């Protein structure tokens, strides 16, 4: 295949201009003819029976078009969960209905009771306030470990002990216990990986319409995966024919996982649009986003890591209670299981691993994938434990990692690494990233500075995190065998226009990741044409054949590979056309730098001419169809496994416990890189979300199930002046099983960063003689100060 | 949310007690009451209009005086609903004599907030409830001054 | 009940009758169809709605349209000059200072205010000035670089003129 050197270059983004000039087109920017607006009546209680919902006064309010309550929708299905996890005994997980509007009892604050549709948003809001709801408040439960105890209030009356599932993976527990008993040292941590609110800056927004002439629906949605929404909404919720529904995700203002899921409002607005015969729009207010957008993390975990006398890990045992919230969101069941338990090998040769996870319903906002999804929780567990063990055994934390790393393997000459927890790693050079990180941070010097600081009464700490993630989600057969109810391939349609310009229709939606640039670079490079002769089209189910969407750092490794498949077909057909024109055999044609050439001669024709010939086939092979237009589906052979090393240097104020982040070094190996500028940008953003979890963020529920920091006045978002400039390094270990050799970069920063920060703070405290094992995230001044004083 | 404090009133406990148990004075001393309707011996239906900084709303609900131990203690129970959230309170109130002419009122209880009051308003609710409490006692003081010593 | 307001937005004079409770951001988005100004929160914290009112960076999601009567307003749509990008717009493209683009208009309008008052800001100055604007995508790293790029560019232009 040809190359014009576009791959690997930091090309400036082609999509930027519309955003820079205020011409982005987000869902809330769209106003349709005869537009109406929706507002919701939502539960104020975490758990209550609905005694009466009186809409009579509201219906008389000015501008009201319609009001619907749960009793109008009793025959409509709820939104489904896309991944089936089974109990240890083989029973199917408990999957209670997640209704579009609640008719019987509300199960978390914000649960929808009624939708009010009016001519203006102000009228809809006014009328929603006039809906009178009578509740019978019920006792509630917010903590996953308490929810499974007998006598705890039941979120769903037919789910005993609030358990959706219990699940286990790895070696038999007896073997792990035995190895743990024989260990020379065991480090143990009991900790909470706190609940986070995803906080994409664009609030979720939907605008749905119905055309009685064609009997077709159109849904504009701020979704990361419009095709998936169409499939779930049509087949599982509303039972409407898929070909009668067009779903469009225009520009989307960030997702981070929270816009993967099929939310109740999408289906409800679609249902309403037909009922009233007019388009209905709803845009979440931020205070609603806090209560409704699926949260992330929220694990309560106890983990033990056993070592032999040489510091080699001999066993890992994990017990986690995963809070799922009040209902199963689209992928909530797989996050704490198949995206968490499967990562417990980490970068280490641990021979015995057992992971036990209980998924628990509580009276809280549903929890689902949030940037990293399961993998940050796994990384946090492993990396906190190994750093703690290093302190406890008085071994240098970098050295302890070197003793335990899986040796380098490229997945081509050496086989992939089979873990104890189902996955087979594709390729890796784990010691490489740590070595590079140590060089960049100048390890010996930082340790010297730490000692000097301790001497002067200051607390400086250095913390490591060497992480791995499984992304490029995912081989359909594997995920199918693990309970996924969908395939996880991707589609790409490459249409060469008669003039040689190229339109690419991809199922991977872009909401900040820069696909319109990166994908165009790949296409232009492979076809030897100019970047601006390629256009990337995404996000419209009517334009793009199919798509599984953007999550799990999968766009380039899965979506990009599908594009490559189509390009290969185009080049192959192009060779036949060129051969005919050049009166040679197709086998003798080679394609390079945008030209089809007869091997060993100077006879060639350009890509543009071949394209024109394909559409004006006057001189054309008899057995060939006209046109130059191919679609492909790519189903990956394996997950991809990016990895890296993050190092944090912090200073802790002795008097106040305030943590200052002094330096952050990130060495990430994401395989081959198409656009290093975009990859670095992805990692920067990921780092801030990871560091945000470590230092600032956390959803706080009170015992009544009220989210007490449901606004930007109370939920601490990471801000510009919380960070130093990041020090970025990279290493390239290509992925052996996809054509671009890429692994994925979207989640790396978030997965690696948090434990590096916490490890650094703990290291700082130990340097001052405070032998603190753990501090609960976020590491606020108060918590750090208490940890210091109490230790 | 915890609501606790104490207040010294210039009147003996029996007089304070009588004032508090009188529906007409109660309607005057509870801040923001626009309607108070007796529904039982010691239960009332109420409408409260409260506007304090960011907290502004019309609350409807019930007030109840419970565990009455004349003249030394009772529990004030309130269940108030509004579009910005609901409040559910149980406040234990103790009246003890100070000298012969004064009463110290000690109150302690829990207020459960829901909806926007809990998610957005919680951090200002402490201040709001302190202001309301002060208003309540200064209103009560005025009422006590009006009525002659019994 | 409506109140008449006169405003100049991006150099164009408008006169409208508006409801007293209409927010300025809704006036810009829904009445003037200038949808480049975004709403990211309802508490004036996120900064996505930042515009210039009489030359000063202002969060317009908690300002009423009637309060803007008589004011001169610039939104992101009015920042570039005859199709030539403002140095900040150029800087954000050059340094990859945006990803999803939702916070970008507010971020640029805040940075423009900073550079008016402090043409050669330090990294700390920039980070401090952008403290009231949330970005969930970029980690702020490249936004800082974008503003530095624009400051340098504007300085070079000064020298040329």
From TrEMBL, chain A:
Signal peptide: none annotated. SUPFAM superfamilies: CO dehydrogenase molybdoprotein N-domain-like, Molybdenum cofactor-binding domain. InterPro entries: Ald_Oxase/Xan_DH_a/b, Ald_Oxase/Xan_DH_a/b_sf, Ald_Oxase/xanthine_DH-like, AldOxase/xan_DH_MoCoBD1, AldOxase/xan_DH_MoCoBD2, AldOxase/xan_DH_Mopterin-bd_sf. SMART domains: Ald_Xan_dh_C. One of its GO terms (molecular function) is oxidoreductase activity. Gene3D superfamilies: Aldehyde oxidase/xanthine dehydrogenase, a/b hammerhead, Aldehyde oxidase/xanthine dehydrogenase, molybdopterin binding domain. Residues 21-139 form the Aldehyde oxidase/xanthine dehydrogenase a/b hammerhead domain. Keywords: Molybdenum, Oxidoreductase. This is Xanthine dehydrogenase family protein molybdopterin-binding subunit. It comes from Niastella caeni.
TrEMBL record, chain B:
PANTHER family: BLL0334 PROTEIN. This is Carbon monoxide dehydrogenase. Gene3D superfamilies: 3.30.530.20. InterPro entries: CO_DH_gsu, START-like_dom_sf. It holds the Pfam family COXG. Transmembrane segments: none annotated.
From TrEMBL, chain C:
Residues 75-148 form the [2Fe-2S]-binding domain. GO terms for molecular function: 2 iron, 2 sulfur cluster binding; metal ion binding; oxidoreductase activity. Transmembrane segments: none annotated. Keywords: 2Fe-2S, Iron, Iron-sulfur, Metal-binding, Oxidoreductase. This is (2Fe-2S)-binding protein. The keyword Metal-binding applies. InterPro entries: 2Fe-2S-bd, 2Fe-2S-bd_dom_sf, 2Fe-2S_ferredoxin-like_sf, Beta-grasp_dom_sf, Diverse_Oxidoreductases. The keyword Repeat does not apply. It holds the Pfam family Fer2_2.
